[in-house]
Amino acid sequence: MSIELHILGSGSATPIPGRNPTAQLLKLDQLDVLIDCGEGTQIQMIRFKQKPSRIKIILISHLHGDHYLGLMGLLSSMHLMGRREAIHIYGPPPLQEILEFQFKVSETVLRFPLHFHPTQDKEFAHLTEILGFDIFSFPLSHRIPTIGFLVKEKPRRGHLITDLLKQYEVPIEKYKEIKAGADFVTLDGNIIPNQVLVKSSTPSISYAYCSDTAPTKEVLNTIRNVDWLYHEATFLHELLDRATETFHTTAKQAGEIARDAEVKNLIIGHFSSRYRDVRPLKLEAEMAFKNVTAAEDGMKFIFR
To answer: Which of 62, 89, 221, 276 allows an S-S link to 146, with CB 3.0 to 4.6 Å?
Structure first.
């Protein structure tokens, strides 16, 4: 299965040329998960040749406009393009009322089922499972209720080595339990270890998305050892007072979080519009953690 992350928007509240507010697509083989939906997201999808029809799940982290104001337009376009397949939205409870009000005043009756799942921002929670992936939410520290998302692939089972199964005369009815991890005992009592009969599987992939948040130690255990971490880095550390006041993170702090959580790769984004050049933010994050990429609109990350 292919797993890719496409950045549709890498900016914060105020868009600038070439940098839209936050939105990204997590592409899991034949379907897409949209994470946040800032203003202009559907234009970005057209620009980067992404198909709205592939979106099956939408995750909204919080109700600041740069994370959800593109949602109504995207849903309306899906309706006008004749979508029939259901879509599932996970987001703060007031978002349901916002959407229902907009549909009401515009006299819009969607052609497709829209299933809204209210989230909560107090504790770690399992949201859904899809294509062998579990999607979780976890609390962040921002001015209004805000959550991050953790996407974890379930452990992948190894592949049976057919030639060795035949060599050791393993009955077909034993294949399932061997694939699940059991050793095989021959008729004369010899134990054939599972690792002899099963080829190691491809490692599972994990991705954590930390939307707008002040840095907190509580999040470290949740995101520990993930393969890929997206973390907001709105300001350079010279504006720490401003970051603290607005419950945001500096690039230096984002690097420290990645280091302390022992993640493998860090993507920083949600850059303030004051930064036309984001290289200084990348360099600052690299002071604490080496594997850093500064997100840019249109950027693609191939996880597998």
So the answer is: 62
Name the token pair of 37: 């939906």
Using DSSP's 3-state secondary structure scheme, residue 289 falls into coil
Give the residue extent of every domain in the chain. 3-156+202-302, 159-199
Structure tokens at 219: 């999040």
The domain over range 3-156+202-302 is classified in CATH as 3.40.920.10: no
**260 is a catalytic site residue:** no
Residue pair 161/198 in contact by the 8 Å Cβ criterion: yes
Separation CA 64–CA 22 (nearest Å)? 11
φ/ψ region of 201 (left if φ > 0, alpha if ψ in -120 to 50, else beta) reads beta
pLDDT digits (tens, 9 = 90+) for 14-32: 999 999 999 999 999 889 9
Alpha carbon distance, N-terminus to C-terminus of the chain? 8
Q: Which of 32, 36, 66, 227 is catalytic?
A: 66
Confidence of residue 157 (pLDDT cuts 50, 70, 90): confident
* Cα-only R_g, the chain: 22
The Cα 180–Cα 182 span in angstroms is 6
